[in-house]
Amino acid sequence: MALALVQHAAPPDRLHVWVGVADRAAPPGLAFKLDGQARAPDTVMRPLAPVLAGPVGAKARTTLFTGFFEFTGLTPGSLHEIEVEGGGERIVRRVQALPDAVPKGPQDRFNVLLASCFHRLEDKTGTAGKVLSQLKVAPHLTLFMGDQVYLDLPTAVDFCDDEAWLADKFQNDYLDNWFGHRHAAADPRAVPSGFPQMLALAPGAFLPDDHEFWNNYPERQCHLSRTSGSDRKDYIRAGTECLRFFQAILNADLPPDDNLSYRIDNTPVVSFFAADVRSARTRFEDSPPRMMPDAALSSFEAWANSLTRPGVLVIGQPLWIKEGDGTDYRPPNFADQYERIWRAIAAAPHDILIVSGDVHHSRILEIGLTDTRVVYEFVTSPACHVPTVGSIISGDYGSQDRGKVEVPASVSVGMNHGPALKPRLLRYLFGTSAPNTLGVLQFLSLPTGKVSVGCTFLDSLAQMPAPAEPLKADAERHDPTVPLCHAEELFRLS
Questions:
Q1: Tens digits of pLDDT across the chain (494 residues)
Q2: DSSP collapsed to 3 states, 210-274
Q3: What letter would DSSP give residue 410?
Q4: Which 3-state string (H, E, C) describes 366-399?
Q5: String of b and e for 152-163 (b: at least 16 CB within 10 Å)?
Q6: Using CA atoms, how far apart are residues 153 and 155, in angstroms rounded to an integer?
């Protein structure tokens, strides 16, 4: 039997913990300790339940149960040791409640770690997790912005036209990332190397992107027969079930439209809105195509309009990006919703920082949205780059691919919802194509009422900020403003 525990983001006076139990026929009873004292959860938000149930679960190679539990009455920002025991196994993890104010002390910042695109087979030695576990600046919150798993790889494997086979394959992909090696450790405090170490760093918040299903989901892919054949519905259902049980915020039942957008308000200095523009995305041939349900987009617009302090929009794909095509549709392709997002940012009573991943390079742009509104977009990707196509086909996953620091010189916003809005690229600050990159944002409230934002792109292999590289905006070259991808204060939000 194997146990896993992951802390999710929660209000500052409580802990939300996801617990997974693998390799056991029936769910065991769980016993918790908090700081060495026996403590039952104040709320069982969801009891242990099988990820795969019924005939599909009966055919699975591994039986897996997950549950979600809440502990209340904590001091904001407080450190704790939580223990869970079940079926004779025990694990212990250090956790920290989210702070409700910028911590006092040497860091004096609210620190957020950002990760996107983690391909486990390119981190066989667990380098990313080891480096992060030794960070001098400890994060208070980790945002996982998509492609936490690559369910469509390996491309060369013929996926069976069978829902049970697909569900079992996807469940095991998640198991490999969330549990690691799944062997009981002699020390219950030992965290398996790799992605589990990233999960253990801080309370986590999750968004899906296309590889939680397949590349350019939900579009058909000519090289993946399973995206258009009779098993397409089975594939989507299996991917959705795993997404619900591992990544859905609060691990609760999804809303009726199956969209995973949510907000995190009880954090210091800034408010967060995580916009899921993937899991409920329609086919581009639909009229009109949409990235997210209208109800979710309206929730974002209401959040932006009601801000009482600066906001952070977390989104799976960048907004400052070229239109895509049938191989990779992007936000500008969804013109009506794309326009509404930009207009909400422009009209908000406070600045909104855009953070994203997906594009396999990292960069920070300063964008002029109106005569009075400047917007910053912070993109970090990949945490662990996928291998080259040749390496995938050969099956050895021995050579990482590398992206390019490129953006369009301009983007086009429609006029269906108001007068002309013409975003313009004002400055490129810095960026990198390093294939193992994580982003760090540090927020500090200033006496003037503004928020200072420090930014870093960390190369986890080099164990230091990545060297800053030039950016190509169509035919134009833009040099970075600093030699390394690090600045203790890069800009301010109002």
A1: 899 999 999 999 999 999 999 999 999 999 999 999 999 999 999 999 999 888 888 888 889 999 999 999 999 999 999 999 999 999 999 999 999 999 876 568 999 999 999 987 766 566 666 676 667 778 999 999 999 999 988 766 667 777 888 888 999 999 999 998 877 778 999 999 889 999 999 999 999 999 999 999 999 987 777 788 777 888 898 898 899 899 986 534 445 456 789 999 989 999 999 999 999 999 999 988 999 999 999 999 999 999 999 999 999 999 999 999 988 999 999 999 999 999 999 999 999 999 999 999 999 999 999 999 999 999 999 998 766 544 444 444 455 678 899 999 999 999 999 999 999 999 999 999 999 999 999 999 999 999 999 999 999 888 899 999 999 999 999 999 999 999 999 999 99
A2: HHHCCCCCCCCECCEHHHCCCCHHHHHHHHHHHHHHHCCHHHCCCCCCCCCCEEECCCCCCEEEE
A3: B
A4: EEECCCCCEEEEEECCCCECCECHHHHHHCCCCC
A5: bbeeeeebeeeb
A6: 5
Cβ 124 vs Cβ 192: under 8 Å: no
Whole-angstrom distance, CA of residue 395 vs CA of residue 407: 32
Supply φ then ψ for residue 364, to 5 degrees.
-125, 125
- Which position has the token pair 């139990």? 21
Torsion on CA atoms 353, 354, 355, 361, rounded to nearest 10:
-120
Claim: this prediction has a pTM higher than 0.85: yes
